[in-house]
Design a protein that fits this description.
It is a single chain. This protein has 5 helices and no strands. Helix 2 packs antiparallel against helix 3 and helix 2 packs across helix 5. The chain has one domain. About 75% of the residues lie in helices and about 0% in strands.
Length: about 100
């Protein structure tokens, strides 16, 4: 469900922010599928919401995130791995999706 929402929201980005987000999104999915595609989708969705809010405030993606899309994806993937490792180990894989119907 998040993938469809991401596609819809991505259309609201200006050209510069769309280039940044597409590179970030593609990098996350290429490297994050080994962790959990749902987590990558949800992370992308929440990141896109932040970017849209920053854009509405007049900021661009590189100024808002302060790092390149590749660097941002590396940081996010580390956090996704830690988050899911914790949940799998301590909570028995009870993870609730952000993007629901």
């Amino acid at each position: 469900m998040c993938g469809q929402k991401v596609t819809e929201l991505e259309e609201q980005l200006n050209a510069e922010n769309r280039v940044y987000f597409e590179e970030l999104y593609n990098t996350l999915f290429l490297n994050g599928a080994i962790y959990n595609s749902q987590a990558v989708s949800e992370t992308s969705y929440t990141l896109l919401l932040d970017l849209l809010a920053a854009q509405d405030a007049g900021e661009n993606a590189s100024g808002y995130f302060w790092v390149s899309p590749i660097q941002m994806s590396k940081r996010l993937l580390k956090n996704i791995f830690r988050y899911f490792s914790y949940h799998l180990h301590y909570l028995g894989n009870q993870i609730y999706p952000i993007c629901e119907k």
